[in-house]
Please model this.
Amino acid sequence: MSQQIINLVESWSKKPEVSKFDIGDTVNVHCRILEGDKERIQIFNGVVIARSGGGTREMFTVRRIVSGEGVERKFPLHSPRIAKVEVVRSAVVRRAKLYFLRDRIGKAVRLRERRVERVIDTTAPQERKQRRGNKGKKNKTEAKAAE
Model:
């Protein structure tokens, strides 16, 4: 009996689809909001500046700028109020907490974007684009090959 209760509680507390995101990622957090007897989803987008806790008690903090004021909001990762978390872009960071962004204003808040490795299709031949200054002209190597 006690094992059944434990399994029931664990099934409630674990969220099956928790998206992977890191510190410095710009995310859209889809929050469920109850207004009377209606439910709607509101999107809170911003930069993840911190993650804390562990397991089912894990929290993350999202910061955004609204009309010149910084707004931070803490979300429980496994909350039923969160519909989903979408990663918009990733950034290169070297710290676990980005609290230094609170002191920055304007363009200084931007973080350097993390490059995503692309898979290049090698089956199709790649045509080389001509540079603007070389329209109709041949390169030195192409001129020697033509001779």
About this structure: The longest helix spans residues 2-13. Residues 17-105 form a domain with the SH3 type barrels. fold (CATH 2.30.30.790).
